[in-house]
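Hi F.,

I've been meaning to write this up properly since the lab meeting, where we talked about keeping a consistent format for the predictions we share between groups. The idea is simple: the sequence comes first, exactly as it goes in, then the structure tokens exactly as they come out, then a line or two of notes. No screenshots and no reformatting. I'm using this chain as the first example so we have something concrete to point to.
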Amino acid sequence: MSKLDEDIQHGHYLIHPDGTVTDTRTGLMWKRCAEGQTWNGNTCVGEAIAVLWNEVMPNGQQKSWPAFAGYDDWRMPTIDELRTLAYCSSGKPRTWNDTKEEYFRCEGNYQRPTIDQVAFPNTDPEGVWSSSPVASVSSISWALSFDSGYAHWYVIFYSRKVRLVRAGRVQ
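Output, unedited:
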């Protein structure tokens, strides 16, 4: 049996051969590729698609996503779940979990994109939507940029990428 047919432990990620990865700290399972990309058994190929927030969260409700890797409960992550993917190779701070700051951003000389590139290959550094709207303004939602690890809000009429998650919990 080849390594591509087995789960591989990489840091706090358990990488599965089906194009998913489980974060052992949170229990969350993520698709390794952003929507629009395809898992070819080795990496993510193609371009991630950018969509409006209302297209993926119509009327503020989770849209249904197609089954993938035998699971049919994929969903948009909350901003707190999405922040757990931010990784600063400079170690300043290393992850959002180190600080829990609302406006987390990598500092110093760090590698872009700010996500584990073994677990999530070919990730575009552009912003990724969360399912978390900004409570006080209905036309704004939280997103995360893998260019700097920066969690910020965007007007929902702008396009951003989508990375899906299922199950688990954020500690």
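Notes:
The first helix runs from residue 53 to 56.
The two ends are 35 Å apart (CA to CA).

If this format works for you, I'll send the rest the same way.

G.
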